[in-house]
Amino acid sequence: MMKSKPRAHDVEIFDPWGSTYERSWIQQRLFDPVHAAVLCQAESRFKPASVLDIGCGSGRLLRKVHDSWPETHLVGIDPAQRMLEVARQLTPEACFSIGSGEALPLVDAPVDLAFSTISFHHWQDQAAGVREVARVLRPGGTFLLADFTLPTWLVWLLSRSRFHSAAQMRALFEQAGLDVEAQPEIVSRFVRITIGTRASR
Ligand SMILES: C[S@@+](CC[C@H](N)C(=O)[O-])C[C@H]1O[C@@H](n2cnc3c(N)ncnc32)[C@H](O)[C@@H]1O
């Protein structure tokens, strides 16, 4: 159920896009509303000391996180070099490292709150990625993953795609040791945040 076709170009498409990504029409139509929704969910629950954004792109979400929580330590991870160059230019408040969700360049358990927005469907090994996020969350830390989710019948038709139903997203989180507390729809019925917390010791 969770297997996916390998797509080598998943990272390569974002390197050339890096220089124009911030000016793309899709920012206002999709990414900005998604960022607003994840921040709304987060601000009502947390005041984190540290935030990680996985698949951070140009750092746009982290800049908004900085506006909300100026004292919070911010880290962004992305495999696309050009995206990170733009992120570093525009977001001096954050630290950025090249890496993927499946192999986060972080020690165990430093992170209070992790975000990932409209990136998960690009990850090659999604189960390993969620386990990695669980590994770097401190006990009690939370992961807000916003991405496309599809009705079960459509997932079944698109077998072996990297798009999942809400139930499949919940299963991925639970297999990684994250307790799912909510899965609100945002922006449209095809975009959802899965919110999961690592059990406290
Ligand atoms: C559509 S962009 C979204 C960027 C950002 N999260 C935002 O909301 O603007 C998807 C990002 O996921 C990154 N990505 C691709 N494969 C990834 C992986 N395996 N792990 C983490 N990020 C990945 C891409 O390089 C790209 O920057």
TrEMBL record:
It comes from Ktedonospora formicarum. Pfam families: Methyltransf_11. GO terms for biological process: methylation. This is Methyltransferase type 11 domain-containing protein. Keywords: Methyltransferase, S-adenosyl-L-methionine, Transferase. The keyword S-adenosyl-L-methionine applies. GO terms for molecular function: S-adenosylmethionine-dependent methyltransferase activity. InterPro entries: Methyltransf_11, SAM-dependent_MTases_sf, UbiE/COQ5_MeTrFase_CS. Gene3D superfamilies: Vaccinia Virus protein VP39 (3.40.50.150). Residues 52-144 form the Methyltransferase type domain. It comes from the Bacteria.
